[in-house]
Amino acid sequence: MESAPAPPSGDRRRDAAATRRRLLEAARDLFAERGYEGTTVRSIAERAGANQALLFRYFGSKQGLLTQVIAQGGLEQLRKTPPEELFETALRSMLTRSADGTGDRSLEVYLRSIGRGDEAAGTLRELGEEYQGALAGLSGTGDGALRADLAMAWLLGIGLMRTVVHREPLAGAEPDDVCRLVLGTLAHLWSAPE
Question: Rounded to whole angstroms, how far apart are CA atoms 64 and 189?
Answer without folding.
Answer: 36
